[in-house]
Backbone:
């Protein structure tokens, strides 16, 4: 049993490291929680304990008084049925409400920061690429650039893929945030 | 009114109606022990914090009120982790208050510091680390609310020493809204549409079984269950956590299902076309291999915890709700069907013929050996026959627990206390103390194993000191018996680290040293007199060392991971299969 639990934990850690490529069977949970000490640990602990896998997780306060935070979790619904994940989450006392978003019903965005080694020959190519994607150069060093891109996760994947031909020194993705698509009358 | 945090805590417990708590003081909880001197609450000083937790569980299981335990920080708190895990598995309302190092010292690896809210996050329904003295009454009220409503469970309140010493202005929350639990909304009533669907499934079933779990006891639903059983004539199985929820003497009672369940209970579920699960959770010890469990059965599942619906077996009708409420609704739905001339149940006569045939062919069985050792099953039978119907029986974990559940006749709810989900050896002695404190009017017999007894026996010192006259029957087979049984059956009789010795320790001397009466029964003719003597003593705890047959095994048995179809009966009955 401990081996299985350890396996699940390891998988979660890996998933958190590389937010790339959720399977088609991923689902987004938008979880409103009380903004109290230890709440994130309760949520993460539940996923690890029950063997549910997380692809990415983003958290921030959501109201002015900072009484509540919203955790956006991309979950692997192959590791457990979505209903089971939602109902177990709902049992956490600090979880106020859970919104389920299928990828088709949601607008999703993610942000990436990348530091690229770009000497005089590559610098303009990288800047051009950033421009094509609508990103931004946010820091310039002697032989390195840090660039930023916000967009749909697939766009970030694409951008990341194209940057591979250069020397990526460091890369940090935020994980997805999502809200439901709006209805039109 | 100005109070210290410590005074506010004790006053909050009094406001919650706490009359008894179990605990052991230490550095970080010291301030809270001072106002106990002036409190109406009876504090029972245990000899190990695990004892405090299990005693509080035993108290909760027989009274229906939450059990309360108090410990200090660090090792005091970690010693009560097992009772918290146990209470979590068995949904027992348990309130643990732990001392914590002063807030400025938290996170510095201070003396006796332990992040107990972190440690117990996964084994409590919720826990709180109090960082503001003004929160104490609110958090205590919230803790009791969370522990006792919805699916009951354990909670922990961690109280730093400086918070205990800080002054506050006393108040008491008067409504649930003041408890600051915006995310906590337990369900109680079942969805009427689903209840009607359940009634329809019941009306169509030819081989239904009422699969009754601990949720029926938690919901105080034994009477409602009786009404449902009487109304429908459906056979009833009671899981290990539900023994006593339905009288074993009732003609519809099939006994306990599961790994060591009654043959008929196991097989009736296996052949059923409708399982009506009331407050049970398809535990692996009940289902055996899940893919071959009750393959033809549709499932109605009633549970107060929505997450149980579909966790193991996907129900055809899943109803989130309190068992007492939902059974009541179900009976009304049946009345409604009756009124419009729709069937309520099928003719179950053919099903009962089959069930009775199993009962006749495969009753519980063990064989007496002429001039041989005491049979443990016979000890349970003799204890049972000499006991009042309302006697409370407490068990540890292992063979003795299974024999107690099999051979006792449970006629009333809340007469059976055991560790079901967690399987915590050593549960019986402290839990029996808590049970006796909760129901001093009742006889409390703990049926324990020798291995279990050695884990927590020191709490008999507590029982003697506090004049709590529990009775402990040790079924002493000199082995870790259940493990020995598995090694005999599944590991080619290669016995590895299971022998304990019948007389090391000397249980009679040990009992006497702890202020109890010690009695020994070495041969079958000693059993009756030993029980008679034990039953005649009511001014102190009694320990009876029954030297039982070391090689007796628990039957029937479904091997771990095997299908319930492959239930193994006693060798004497094997020919009948």
Residues:
């Amino acid at each position: 049993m401990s081996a299985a639990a350890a396996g699940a934990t390891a998988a979660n850690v890996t998933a958190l490291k590389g937010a790339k490529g959720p399977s088609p069977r991923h689902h987004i949970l938008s979880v409103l929680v009380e903004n109290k000490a230890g709440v994130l640990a309760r949520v993460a602990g539940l996923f690890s304990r029950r063997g549910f896998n997380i692809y990415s997780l983003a958290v921030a306060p959501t109201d002015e008084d900072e009484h509540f935070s919203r955790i956006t979790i991309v979950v692997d619904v192959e590791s457990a049925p979505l209903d089971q994940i939602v109902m177990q989450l709902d049992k956490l006392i600090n979880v106020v409400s859970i919104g389920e978003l299928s990828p088709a019903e949601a607008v999703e965005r993610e942000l990436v920061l990348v530091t690229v080694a770009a000497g005089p020959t590559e610098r303009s190519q990288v800047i051009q690429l950033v421009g094509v994607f609508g990103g931004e150069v946010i820091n310039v060093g002697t032989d390195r650039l840090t660039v930023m891109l916000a967009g749909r996760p697939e766009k970030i994947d694409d951008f990341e893929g194209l940057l591979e031909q250069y020397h990526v020194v460091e890369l940090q993705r935020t994980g997805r945030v999502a809200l439901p698509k709006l209805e039109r009358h | 009114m100005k109070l210290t945090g410590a005074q506010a805590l004790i006053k909050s417990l009094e406001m919650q109606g706490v009359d008894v708590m179990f605990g052991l003081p230490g550095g970080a909880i010291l301030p809270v022990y001072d106002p106990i001197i002036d409190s109406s609450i009876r504090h029972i000083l245990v000899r190990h914090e695990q004892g405090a937790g299990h005693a509080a569980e035993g108290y909760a299981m027989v009274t229906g009120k939450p059990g309360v335990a108090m410990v200090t920080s660090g090792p005091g708190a970690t010693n009560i982790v097992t009772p918290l895990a146990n209470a979590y598995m068995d949904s027992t309302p348990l309130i643990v208050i732990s001392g914590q190092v002063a807030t400025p010292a938290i996170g510095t690896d201070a003396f006796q510091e332990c992040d107990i809210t972190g440690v117990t996050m996964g084994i409590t329904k919720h826990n709180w680390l109090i960082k503001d003295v003004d929160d104490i009454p609110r958090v205590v009220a919230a803790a009791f609310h969370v522990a006792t409503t919805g699916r009951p469970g354990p909670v922990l309140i961690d109280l730093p020493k400086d918070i205990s010493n800080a002054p506050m202005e006393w108040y008491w929350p008067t409504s649930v809204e003041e408890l600051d639990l915006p995310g906590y909304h337990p369900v109680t009533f079942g969805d009427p549409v689903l209840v009607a669907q359940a009634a329809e499934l019941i009306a169509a079933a030819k081989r239904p079984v009422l699969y009754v779990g601990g949720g029926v006891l938690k919901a105080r639903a034994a009477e409602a269950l009786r009404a449902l059983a009487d109304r429908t004539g459906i056979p009833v199985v009671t899981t290990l956590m539900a023994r006593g929820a339905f009288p074993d003497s009732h003609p519809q009672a099939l006994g306990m299902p599961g790994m060591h369940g009654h043959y008929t209970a196991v097989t009736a579920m296996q052949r059923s076309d409708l399982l009506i699960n009331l407050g049970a959770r398809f535990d692996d010890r009940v289902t055996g291999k899940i893919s071959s469990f009750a393959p033809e059965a549709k499932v109605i599942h009633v549970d107060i915890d929505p997450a149980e619906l579909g966790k193991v077996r996907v129900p055809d009708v899943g109803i989130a709700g309190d068992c007492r409420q939902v059974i009541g609704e179900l009976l009304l739905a049946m009345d409604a069907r009756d009124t419009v001339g729709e069937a309520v149940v099928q003719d179950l006569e053919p099903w009962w013929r089959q069930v009775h045939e199993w009962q006749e062919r495969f009753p519980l069985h063990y064989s007496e050996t002429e001039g041989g050792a005491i049979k443990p099953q016979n000890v349970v039978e003799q204890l049972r026959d000499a006991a009042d119907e309302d006697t409370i029986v407490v068990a540890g974990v292992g063979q003795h627990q299974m024999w107690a559940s099999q051979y006792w006749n449970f006629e009333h709810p809340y007469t059976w206390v055991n560790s079901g989900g967690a399987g915590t050896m050593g549960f019986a002695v402290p839990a029996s103390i808590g049970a006796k404190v909760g129901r001093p009017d009742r006889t409390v017999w703990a049926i324990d194993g020798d291995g279990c007894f050695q884990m927590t026996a020191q709490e008999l010192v507590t029982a003697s000191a506090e004049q709590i006259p529990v009775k402990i029957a040790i079924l002493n087979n000199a082995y870790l018996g259940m493990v020995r049984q598995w090694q005999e059956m599944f590991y080619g009789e290669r016995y590895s680290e299971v022998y304990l010795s019948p007389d090391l320790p000397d249980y009679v001397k040990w009992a006497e040293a702890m202020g109890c009466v010690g009695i020994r029964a070495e041969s079958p003719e000693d059993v009756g007199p030993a029980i008679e003597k034990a039953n005649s003593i009511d001014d102190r705890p009694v320990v009876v060392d029954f030297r039982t047959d070391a090689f007796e095994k628990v039957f029937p048995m479904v091997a771990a991971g095997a299908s319930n179809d492959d239930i193994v009966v006693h060798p004497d009955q094997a020919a009948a299969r």
Remarks:
- Chain A touches chain B at residues 33-34, 37-38, 41-42, 45-46, 49, 81, 83-84, 87-88, 90-97 (CB under 8 Å).
